[in-house]
Amino acid sequence: MTKILVADDEKEIVRLLKIYIETDGVTVLEANDGIQALEILEKNDVALALVDIMMPKLDGYQLIKKIRQKDEYIPIIVISAKVTLSDRVLGIDLGADDYITKPFEPLEVAAKVKAQLRRLNAAVSKEDPSSTVTVGDITLDIDECSIRKDGETIELTKAELKVLELLMSQPKRVFTKEQIYESAWYSDTAADDNTIRVIISRLRDKVGAEHIKTIRGLGYRFEI
What's the pLDDT tens digit per position in 43-59? Predict the structure, then answer.
């Protein structure tokens, strides 16, 4: 049985998401504050977490930090009324895999949950236990979720890892925002320009701006 945590202080939202997400083989565990969410995570094997930001006792940002301290790989989807780009930046920087703003379409949330679970199952079943990609002076360690450059190891978030893995897989090739979004979020529907720009900006800080070029009107490519 796959267990999914939904943490939101608005009980109606939790109940609504439960209706759309809970199916045969998937159980939704409900939390209405950050502390309760942490307790559920400690007592259960949770495959994915949906996290609101503005929760009592422990807000969503603090909750994400604590989750990432214990588990690098559990998918985290933020659902929040905080809609500014800086909010998205902070959520992604702390380790969220996706960011959905309120009000939202329950079917969209359910689709993103299913996509993250498919990605998680695919990663578990992957036969190759270790993989690195080297282009120029940069080595991407997929298992360690990091890059090595000039003798320094730099950690990546999961979203950064997937985007960089795609760009480095074919240097000089231009990838569209839809291809990039699908690589990181397993869906090309409603590709979010702001989220992609945040990821690209963070990657430029980590690998060097000269390595990731914007092709106006098309997308991005990796430069050696």
Answer: 999 999 999 999 999 99
Peptide bond into 103 cis (omega under 30): yes
pTM of the model: 0.72
Structure tokens at 190: 């409603």
Topology at the third CATH level for domain 2-125: Rossmann fold (3.40.50)
Termini Cα distance of the chain: 45
Give whole-number Cα distances, 170 to 143, 144, 157, in Å: 19, 21, 21
Q: Could you tell me which residues come within 8 angstroms of residue 137 by beta carbon, excluding any fewer than 6 positions away?
A: 149, 150
CB count within 10 Å of CB 85 equals 11
* Tokens 């359910």 sit on residue: 110
Six-digit token string for 59: 């807000």
**Domain ranges within the chain, ordered by starting residue:** 2-125, 132-222
| The CATH number of domain 132-222 is 3.40.50.150 | no
